Sequence to fold (545 residues):
Amino acid sequence: MRAIRLIMQRELAQYFSSPLAYLIAGAFLLLTGVTFYSDLNFSLGVRPVEPALIPNLLAQVMIVFAPLLTMRLLSEENREGTMELLLTAPVSDGNIVFGKFLSAWAYYTFILLLTLLYQFILVNIALPDISHTIAAYLGIWMYGGAALAVGLLFSATTENQILAAFMATIALLLLYYGDSLGRVVASADLAYILFNLTLQGHYAASFAIGAVRAEDIVYYAGLIVVALFIAIRVIESKRWR
Amino acid sequence: MIEVKNLVKRYGTFSAVNNISFEAAPGEIVGLLGPNGAGKTTTMRILTGFMPPSEGSVKVEGFDVLENSMEVRRRVGYMPERVPVYLDMTVHGYLTFWAKLRGMKQPNTQVNQMLERFSLGDRRNKLVRSLSKGLRQRLGLAQALVHNPPVVILDEPTIGIDPQQVIEVRETVRALRENHTVLFSSHILSEVEQVCDRVIIIHKGKIMASGTPQQLAKKYKPGVHLYVSLSGRSQSEIRALLESLPKVDNVREQAAGFVLSSRTDADLRADVSSIIAKHQLTLLEMRLVEVTLEDIFLNIVDKR
Ligand SMILES: Nc1ncnc2c1ncn2[C@@H]1O[C@H](COP(=O)(O)OP(=O)(O)O)[C@@H](O)[C@H]1O
Ligand SMILES: [Mg+2]
Fold:
């Protein structure tokens, strides 16, 4: 536990002193802000505001942002050789991976909380369905955790940050749009199964419309566990090489 | 205390370390001496719990590296060959992080002691990024010692730093002897001679010889080496002239000149000067060469 906390703290400090992390946070707020503003302008008087607006946007944005937030977490340790020190410290491989993951998730939570600002504005001018919004935020928080875990996994495989981000983006794209394959083969059953394996399958059909289902939470938690487990295995395998 | 018995490490089918055994006791500095690729780093990585052995038993302070990896890691201080650092941490933050990760609850006193000991105190709040190679080397040593481990493993700690710093590092290592078991690797014979109580020479994963520096020096240290670079004649003519010198036992081409070796302690410089005068050559460069183990091995290979 102590090791996890130490590693997480170090990484969090890195996030809060890294220009890239601030850029990402800035882009996050800009994107969500612009979307919020235009939706507000458009919807006023025409239709009710969309309570899950910002989480819906983030569902796609995280395909790019999660790899950017996680790419250096392990690849930099690999490249700089500090991995050798970490792996010879009295700390398990799992603690290393978990500490890193928690730092990324905590930083993501921090920017996500910043976007709540828009929701507060909204509450004052329109009457959004607050429980709907809360469900969507819960969903995108879990979803983001899963995307970050996938990003971290690819960071473990290489010394090259750009490569890590690139591979993670591809993997996330596949995870997100994987169900299009089912449509290609024109089988409704297959499409349904595939849809339920994708990132969007467990977001768009539930959290986005304000429904919290246990199976969706289990899906994202499961994805986190699987990705972190593989990341630990990747690190272990480096020892045997 | 380090005990290595019949250690084998294979990468695929290639044996980087091939059945070596040795021991190191507290209060002893043991040197691993070998040319590049000998298997020094591999041996050390196994001792620090970084990678498991393929065969054999390796114990540190009585704990097996496979069965009790965490206990071993708690008792070892390690400075890897490349001296890895976190560039974006402060000097103080870096040491504190490693001290805590190695289990110290309140490392502040020890961290400050280390900063003083390695003259890094005035840079405690500077980013590691701003440190020169030599200072990073000191930081690496501080990192390996901050938790006061009984066993200290240093992989080529003097590589790539300037001579003054090399002397400092050697002195630091010698000072460790009192309270630690130290394993130190190098490919420079003279260095191991100065620093270590006992030397193990490894080559291609095997132990070639071991003993006190005095014993080894007698056996392996080949007199004087001189690098000369001359012009005025063709290189082959120059080589022939150099080889004709009575005190020169071996001539080996290197860069734009030759390395002359003599098994006696004779000063070859006078002889070379006489050739230059006699044949009206131009002297481009002449300097004494520090004997590395690599040179010795190359020499042996050359003669065969
Ligand atoms: N991870 C690895 N995979 C394959 N071969 C390796 C690996 N690490 C080292 N080697 C090889 O093992 C041999 C010993 O290497 P090393 O222990 O680094 O030697 P030294 O530290 O004495 O220079 C070398 O031939 C090197 O190429
Ligand atoms: Mg080495």
About this structure: Residues 93-125 of chain A form the longest helix (33 residues). Chain A has a mean pLDDT of 89. Residues 114 and 162 of chain A are 27 Å apart (CA to CA).
